[in-house]
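Handoff note, outgoing to incoming analyst
You'll be picking up this chain. Sequence as last confirmed:
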Amino acid sequence: MTETAAKSRFDRSIVEGPLTPAVWRLAWPTMVQNVIGGLQGIIDQAMVGNFVGHTGNAAIGVSLQIFILVIVFVASVFTGMGVLVARFAGADDPDKVNQSVYQAFIVAVALAVGVMAPIGYWLAPRLLTLINAAPEVQVEALPYIRILFVFSIGMLLFFMFGGALRAAGDAKTPMRLGIAMTAMNIVLNVVLIRGLGPIPAFGTRGAAMGTAIASGITAAVFLWLLFSDRLVIHFSRTMSYRPNLEIIRSLFRFGLPAGFQGIVMNLGGVLMLRFIGSLQESAAAQAAYAVGYTELFSLITWTSVGLMGATAAVAGQNLGAGFPDRSARSTWVASGMGLMVACGVGLLFVTIPRPLLAIFGMHEGAVVDIGVELLGYLAISGLFVTVALAHTGGLQGTGDTRSPLYISIVSQVIVPLGICAVLQATSGLESRDIWLAIVIGHMTRCGLSVVRFRQGKWRHIAVDIGPARA
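Most recent structure output, in case you need it:
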C-alpha cells in the first residue's frame, strides 16, 4: 500500500484495484437496499390492496407518480453533489468532499421546507385531477399524497446522505440504515394501515404516515453519524456553516439537467396515466399499472438504479484520479450484472404472473387479465432498462448530466406518448398498445445512451470549486 493510500479516508481500490470487484462492492449494498426498499413498497401495496381494495392500490400508484415527479427535481442537487463528491474523492481531497455535501444539505432543507411542503399540499387536488384519477381513487389518494409532501424532508435527507456516501465509496452504511428504515416502516405500516389496539386503522394514509416517520428518524441518525466522525464524510463543528455560492452553483450546474431529466421521465409516466385513464377499464388498468410497473418492475429498476449509482461513483472517481479508460469499462461491467438480474425477474413475470398479482389482492377480473398482459411486456423492457441505466450512471458520474436529459425527452416522452396519441386518434387505444409503447421507449433510451457514452465527450469535462473554506 502506498503512503497516500494509507493516509486516505477513501477506498483507493476503486481507482487502483481490479475494476469488477470495485463496481460490485459499491453495487451490491445499494442493490440489496433498493430491493428491500422495493419489498417494503410491495408490502404496502399488498396490505392496502387487501384492506382497502384495488382503489387503494391505484391511489398509491398515482400519488407516487406525482410525488416522484416533484421530488426528483428537488433532489437534482444530489446528482450535482454526487459528481463533485466522486471527483474530489478520486482526487483524494476530503475537505472539498465535506464542503460539497454540507452545501447540498443546506439546499435540501430549504427546498423541502420552503417549496415541497407548502406547494405540494395546496396543489395536490389539481395534480390528481390532471392525471385523470378516478373519483374513488382521488378520495384515497389526496390525504396520502399530502402527507408525503408535507413530511418529505426525512426522505430527501436520507437520499442525499446515502448518495453522498456511495459517491465517496461507502455503500454499506446507507444499506444498513436503509434496511433499518424499511423494517421500521413495515412495522409502522402494519400498525397504521390496519390499526392495533387503541390505534385506529388509517388505511391508505397510514402507509404515508409510516413512511414519513421512518424516514425522519433515519435522517436524524444519518446527521448524527456525520457529526460523529465515524464516516468517510465528516461535518466538523469548526467548519463554515455559511452558504457557499460557488459550490451551490456547481451543484445546480451538474444537478439541474438531471432534475429536468427526472421531471421529463416522470412527466412521461404521469401523462401515460392519462392514456391509461382513458381506457374502458380505467380503474383496473391504473391498479394493474401501479402494481405491475411501480412495484413488481421495481425489482428490476431498483436493482438497476443501484448499479447506476455504483457506475456513477466508479466512473467519476476514476476520471478524478486520471483513469478515463477505467471509467469507460465500468459501464459494461454494471450492464452485465444488471442483465443477469433482469433475465431472472423477467422469467418470473412470464411464468408466474398470476401468483405475483395475487400477492396484492388481485385474484380475478379485468385487473388480473390486464396485469398479466403488462408483466409480459415488462419482462422484455427490463433488459433494455438495465443497460440504459448503467450508461446513464457513467454519463452522470463523469459530469455529462445534459445528455441523459435529451435522451429522456426523446425516449420517455416523444416516442411512447407519440405512439399512444397516434393510435388513440386513429384505430383506438387498447392496453396492449400502451404497454408496447413503453417497451419501444425503453429500447430507444438504451440505444441512445450507449451511443452517447461511446462518443467519449465526458472525458473532457472539468470539475472544480476552488479551495475549500475553513
